[in-house]
Amino acid sequence: MMEQYKGADFGELSPHVFAIADVAYREMINEGKNNSILVSGESGAGKTETTKMLMRYLAHLGGRSGVEGRTVEQQVLESNPVLEAFGNAKTVRNNNSSRFGKFVEIQFDKTGRISGAAIRTYLLERSRVCQINTPERNYHCFYFLCAAPPEDTQRYKLADARSFHYLNQSSCIEVEGINDAEEYLATRRAMDIVGINEEEQEAIFRVVAAVLHIGNINFAKGKEVDSSVIQDDNSRFHLNTASELLECDCNNLEKALITREIVTPEEIITRTLDPESALASRDALAKTIYSRLFDWIVEKINVSIGQDPNSKQLIGVLDIYGFESFKINSFEQLCINYTNEKLQQHFNQHVFKMEQEEYTREEINWSYIEFVDNQDVLDLIERWIDCASG
């Protein structure tokens, strides 16, 4: 099917994402014009799958052998399952919802062959690591790891996914159409292709397991006012296991969870935390660890694929998660929805407003096309931002 759209005039064949990708590629080759393709829509509309199709088509048009026999385009395509494992989750409307924004910059040489690529990610939904609601799930990788072969789960001291607080807040543990055990192995294979070696994979999944164990550490009131201690032997087990997996001192980890340091010009003051504050400290640590792990994986993929510093031609593909409204919406969700509103306004401006203004100027006989203008929504948010910053 890809061959049908290769070089075909735009509009000659049935509408398809391949046609959009082909136009972008031909303009780049023939006119030296760099292009970006923005994929937008509501959650569950198929943005991520559309992005994959765009990338497959661009990989079909230009391929180049990479290091150790791998092709650059193969590495770019195989980065998808890796990023999905660590950045996608089941939501109310989508079983494989992207919980981060992704801009893939595909670089081409003078002959139109892919010579490098770079992946940039934005706005990973950190709050999902420690807070989910039915019928949603946490990030896929947690469930994949809990369903891993026994030798792996034993090494990380993991049990059934239902035994971990960060996963059992939702009654949804399994998703129809997703075999977590098979996806774990598929993720490991994809990691091999994108250049993440066995030792690095081991370190990655140690961190994933450590986050789960951190979530099972609970606290009780300490002897002093507004202080806390590790609640029981079960919490102590998870604390010890997390410190082993993270290769850090157990006492230092415990201290980091139940105390807070305040730095003043004169001294460093250590304050104890009550159980509620200690839980917040625990969750903040888990979110930070996971977020930094995700950033490291993206950086590793970029290093492995390699960028072409001499490339003057590129096509960018943007895939961000869609507009959503949950039972409980965090500040992150406001940022996500605001970004979607801005993209929609950009679309409205270029597809409807500017075109229809031009028709009016040129006195073309046409019928006005009604569309929903979301400028009022943007004005409401942006004026609030101006007030807050002022």
TrEMBL record:
Keyword terms, alphabetized: Actin-binding, ATP-binding, Motor protein, Myosin, Nucleotide-binding
PROSITE patterns per UniProt: MYOSIN_MOTOR
Keyword Transport applies: no
Domain of life of the organism encoding this protein: Eukaryota
GO cellular component term of the entry, any: membrane
Domain Myosin motor positions: 1-390
GO biological process entries: actin filament organization; actin filament-based movement
Residues reported in the UniProt entry to bind ATP: G41, E42, S43, G44, A45, G46, K47, T48
Molecular function via GO: actin filament binding; ATP binding; microfilament motor activity
InterPro entries linked: Kinesin_motor_dom_sf, Myosin_head_motor_dom-like, P-loop_NTPase
UniProt record similarity statement: Belongs to the TRAFAC class myosin-kinesin ATPase superfamily. Myosin family.
Name of the protein in its database record: Myosin motor domain-containing protein
Organism for this UniProt entry: Triticum turgidum subsp. durum (Durum wheat)
